[in-house]
Structures are given as structure tokens and as C-alpha cells.
Amino acid sequence: MKKHWMFIFVLSVLLASFTTFAYCAETISIGYSGPLSGGAARYGTNNLHGIQQAIDEINGAGGITVGGKTYTFKLTYLDDKYKPAETVSNVRRMLTTVSPKPIAIFCPHSGGILAIEKFNEREKVLIHGYTDNVAILKQGNKLVVKAPMSMAFYNSGPADMGWENGYRKVALLCGAHEAGKMAEKIFQVQWKDKGGEVTSVDSIDFRTVTDFYPFLTKALSKNPDCIFLYGPSEPTAMLVSQARELGFKGGFLLGSQCKLDEMAKVVSMEILNNSIGVCPVGMMPLPMMQKYNKSYRDKFGADAIPTSESAFNYEVMYIIAEAMKKSGSVTDTQKIRKAIGDVLPVGEHAIRGINKVTPEGQFISGYFAIAIRDNKFVDPINIDPAPWYKKYGATWMGE
Amino acid sequence: MELFFQQLLNGIMLGSVYSLVALGLTLIYGILHVPNFAHGVLYMLGAYLAYLMVSALGFNFWVAMLLTMVILAVIGMLIERLVFRPLMEAPHLNSFIAAIGLIYIIENGALILWGPDFKRFPAVYDQLYHFLGITITLHRIIIVLTAISLIVIMQLFIKKTTLGATIVATAQDRIGARLAGINVERVGLITFGIGTALAAAAGVLIGPILLVYPSMGSALILKAFVIIILGGMGSIPGAIIGGFILGIIESLGGGYLTTQYNEVLAFGVLVTVLAIRPTGLFGKAH
After folding, report:
1. Does B156 reside within a domain?
2. How many Å apart are CA B27 and CA A6, to the nearest integer?
3. Where are the beta strands (DSSP E) in chain B?
4. Which of A151, A166, A317, A321 has the smallest number of Cβ neighbours within 10 A?
5. What's the CA gap between B16 and B227, in Å, rounded?
6. What is the pLDDT of residues A137-169, one digit of tens each?
7. A198: part of which helix (H) or strand (E)?
8. In whole angstroms, what is the distance from residue B125 CA to residue B116 CA?
9. For residue A375, is it left (φ>0), alpha (ψ between -120 and 50) or beta?
10. How far apart are CA A257 and CA A110, in angstroms?
């Protein structure tokens, strides 16, 4: 009798494990580790929304078919509070506890990406790093891709337009965070290359600052024609507003972190006059992007602003799905990575226009630069990535 | 010279906000004998409440400020009664951890309730004044005047009223105060209420200049600690003067030397003062 029970038990365990196995084989896991609480919570959520929307759309359309089998995607996300150490433990946790094991990990900050690049090849997991820091491409990692172009490329549009406006003397006020420091270094090189003058360089710790007057008083005492800013949109908008209070009449050149549509929510267009920055994705004059904006708002609420974060991650999620189809594998990340180049652009989902991937893993796409004059946005200007990449390549960061 | 006066003015504005926060913190330290790390999140809570009252309910700025101070005073008292008083006899470490726990609860509560977005306080008193090459907005003048008035009122309250004297007595010697017939529990409750109301006032005042967001408190609390250590833990004049010293150092140091080392300057002064006077500027050795 006892043996009989034992037999049934073993059989049921076997059956159970077989069914889970069969069930798992039809799901593909995608992991995300990024800030979902604290000061960068919204940034992290924007990234997550893009992936989520693509996955929901793909699953809603019945999933993808690879090798005659149909698969749906499952997204697992964990909060890393913007800390690389937490990114590592999150990713390790997902790789060991999530079933099936994630094939791709999305991470939106260079510190975290650099940390997981230490072991993703061994774990055979693909990384999509959402950052304009090209350092993540310099690690020789074969399983990393990155959608945002280099920071230097995003700086170049506003810098050129500012130069054409006749600005020659620039004051720099950038965040004290890693990206801010990098923007500060790159912009100085770019501005001096043009023959411009840098009147002052100050960095602001946006986490601890209580008032911008001391910083602005110093910067404005050197009479710059324009100020280059790099930091989170809303505090940067306050900076602009306080600079106007202090009587500054010149222009503002904005690094890619400053989003003009988010800034316009906080301060008036009059204050933002003569600001030049990267065109917010919601305002890009591209039909596919406009369609995406509408579906984004339908999904996340009328107030939701589609951002570069959500748009790029959305497109990359589609790219990965297409590459799986092309490669005929949902588990072999080497093959999937190799197939990526052959699926670009991904049809109507290529909303940001990714049309190429470099051997280092840089996706190539252009952008628009936009300015505010007479209290309104002027027409966006298309910035073509081809000449830039011919001259500087994928990994130039001002050295 | 214009640069100097502008930066001095900037420093005084910053200092008045710092002093207000530090004053509340130092009062509560006198009762709790551990720094109340949750002071910063209560300042954040104050800013949010006033923001909601002004923007959603259309309250007058001053009405909103007064109401916020009252509400936060009640919240402060509740926190004292529910969180810190049961830990009074326990080792200090317990209160320490409870305060840190409060940060998580309140900050993440705000994040869930109001979202991670930065909120812009509707502009109040944004008239500009220029004189002798110096620029200041009316709101900044109001911040300085209000903060100084609150500080003066607090000083009078502590020095001239019996209740104020009992707060000082309890801070100096809890057992002695009890022996003299002071209800130390009640004093603790009131002190928490007052300290929290001061933090709320600072939050409301700075709201229109900066932005309102869930982690705004953690930025300020570190500076408030520097101030009360600089001034001497538990010392009221120390907190007030320390606040102005830090504000002026930040803006003048940033203006003339480099903004990169703003915080290095502030901590440098702290280290120097502590090296010469280990108990802080006004602290008394135990």
C-alpha cells in the first residue's frame, strides 16, 4: 500500500513538472531593473511603460510564432532605486527565480548596465541599456544593445542652433550626477571646437539643492550669451525661471535630459523663450510617432506624456521579438543578437526610426531639435545621424 | 560688490529656511535625545499639504500655511504618542530605527498618494525688486521675514512663558524636571507638535521657490543635521545661527570659490568647528 502511494506521488510530481515545463516553453521572460521609487521613479516608470505597452500589444495580437510554436511574453520588473548594486541583485534574482529564465534584461542607467555587463554573457542574457553613455559599448560585450544615441550627438543639435543664433559665450550649469558631469565635459569640447568661449562651469546637485540663486548669480556675473543646462526637466525649468528673475535675457541650450514639454508644464512659455533643446517625442512630426502617442495616452491616461524613454523601449521590445522570429530561436541570445541587424527597421513599430545597429550594439536613429520663440515652439529641425557617425563613430565622448 | 551683496542676500534667504528646519529638529532632539531623522519628510508633508490647499482648494497662501502648521503639529504629536513615547525607556537605538522607518513610510506614502511628479506651487508674490544691482522677489523677502518672525516668536515663547521654560527644563534633565513637578510626557508631546509645525512652515515657505516632490525632505535633513551639530546638539541659538552660517557659506563659497565644492565647504566648516569646540558652537559639555 505504501509503495502504491509512493508511486502515485512520484507520478504526480513528474506530471506536474512536465506540465509546467510545457507551459513555460510557451512563455518568454523579459526582465526590467530600474528606479521605481525615489527621485527617479518617473524616469524608471516611463521606461517600463514602453516595454509593457509593446508586450501587451504583442500578446494581445496572439504572441509571436517561432519554429512553428506560439509564444507570449512575460515581463518581470524590480525596483533598483537607481543603485548599481541593487541592479545586480535584482538581475541575479530574476535569472535564478523567474521561470522561464529571462532572455533579455532592460536597464535604464549606465551604472547598473555596467555592473550587469560583468556577467550577462556567462548567463547568456541580452541587455538593452537605455542610456546615452557610450561607456557601456566599450566593454567588448557581445550581448548588449543600446537605443539612445551618444550624448555628444544629442548635444550637437542645440549647440549648432545656438551658434547660428549668434551665441558665443556660454555658461554651463549641469547636474552633479554622472550623466551631468559627462554632458559638462562633452559640451565644453564641442563648444570650444566651434571657437566659442566657456565663461563658467558649475555643477548643481539636484538632490540636495534648495535654491538656484547662488549658482545663477555666479554664472550670470560673467555675462554669458547663453546657458547650457543638463538635469531633470522640472528643476531645470525652475532654474530657467530663476535666471529670468535675475534679469538674464539670453538663450538656454538644453541637454537631452531636459524635456521641453515637461518643462512647459512647470513654467510659462514666455519664460522658456529662446530655449533650444531636443524635440520631445510627443511633438515629433512623424505619423507613426503620432499614432504611438495616441495609443500611449489611451493606455496610461490622457495626462501621460509619451517620452523618449517609453518610445525607445517600445521599439526595442519589438526589435527583440522580430529578431527572435528571424533567428528561429527564443533562447539562443547570440543568434537573436546576430539577427537584430536584419530586422531593422521594424515596420510600423519603428516609431523612433531605428534603422541600423553598429557592431558595438549602438542602434542608429536621428532626432529633431526644437526651439521656443515668441512664446511658441518653432518647427522641429531634423538632425541626421549619418554625418555625425561618419565623423565621430559610436563611442566618442569628448576625449 | 553687487555680486557680494546678491550672494549675501541669497545666503540669508537659504539660511532662514535652514534655521527654521534646524530649530524644530533641535527642539525635538532635546526631548528624544536622538536626532529625529523623519523631520525632513514632515517638512515635505507640509509642503504637499499647502500645495494641495492652494492649488486644488484655492486657499489663500497664509491660510494654507497656518492650517498646514496646525495639521502637521497634530501629526507630530501623534507620531510622538504612537511611535516615540513607547520607546522612551528602550535603548536610543530603537528610536533611531523607528525614525528611519518613518521616513520610508511617509516618503513612499507620498509617492503612492501623489505620484513621483514634481509639483509646481502656484506663484505667489512673484513681484521683482531691483535696487543697487541686486534682484529679489517679494516671495523671498516674505520667506526671510516670516522665518525670522517665527524664530523670534519661538525665542519669546521659550524664554518668557512657563511652558517654554518647562521645555528647556525637560531637555536639560528629564528626571529633574519630573521631580520639580513637570509633566514631561505632556511637554514631549507639545514639543513634538511645535517642532513639526516649524518644519511644515519651512516646507510651505520654500514650496513656491523650489518644487514639491516626495524626496525633497531627504535633501534638507542632512543639512539640518550639519546645522544642529555645528550649533551644538539641542542648542536653540546654535540652530538659528548655525542655519544662517550654513546658508551664507553655501552661497558666498559657491559664488567666489566653486560650486563644485559647496558641500565640502559646509562640511569643512563643521569639521573645523568640531575640532576646536567638540560640543559645537553653543553646545554644553555633559
Report:
1. yes
2. 69
3. 128-131, 134-137
4. A166
5. 12
6. 999 999 999 999 989 999 999 999 999 999 999
7. strand A197-204
8. 27
9. left
10. 14
Number of domains in chain B: 1
Cell match 501623489: residue?
Answer: B114
Q: Does residue A160 contact residue A144 with C-beta atoms inside 8 Å?
A: no
Question: Strands A144-146 and A126-129: what pairing?
Answer: parallel
Residue range A286-305: average pLDDT?
Answer: 88
**Which residues have a Cβ under 8 Å from the Cβ of A371 and sit 6 or more positions away?**
A161, A274, A275, A276, A277, A377, A378
Pairwise CB contact (< 8 Å): A205 & B262 = yes
How far is it between the farthest Cα atoms of chain A? 94
Label the pairing between strands A275-278 and A367-373.
antiparallel
Looking at the complex, report in whole angstroms how far the Cα of residue A277 sits from the nearest Cα belonging to chain B. Answer: 20
* CATH no. for A151-283+368-392: 3.40.50.2300
**CB-defined contacts A:B, below 8 A:** 105
Beta carbons of B215 and A209 less than 8 Å apart: no
CATH of domain A7-150+287-364: 3.40.50.2300
Q: Enumerate residues 6+ apart whose C-beta is below 8 A from B142.
A: B125, B205
SS3 A123: coil
Please tell me the distance in Å from A101's CA to the nearest CA on chain B. 30
Return the closest-CA partner of residue A324 out of A71, A60, A117: A71
C-beta atoms of B14 and A210 within 8 A: yes
- Given CB atoms, is B279 within the 8 Å cutoff of chain A? no
Residue of B nearest to A235 (CA): B211
d(CA B11, CA B15): 6
**For residue B3, which residues of chain A lie inside 8 Å, CB to CB?**
217-218, 221
In which residue ranges of chain A is CATH 3.40.50.2300 found?
A: 7-150+287-364, 151-283+368-392
Contact A208 B128 (CB under 8 A): no
Domain region containing B215? 15-220
Residues B95, B34 contacting (CB under 8 angstroms) = yes
Q: Strand runs (DSSP E) across A9-148, as ranges?
A: 27-34, 64-66, 69-79, 104-107, 126-129, 144-146
Across all residues in chain A, what is the average pLDDT?
89
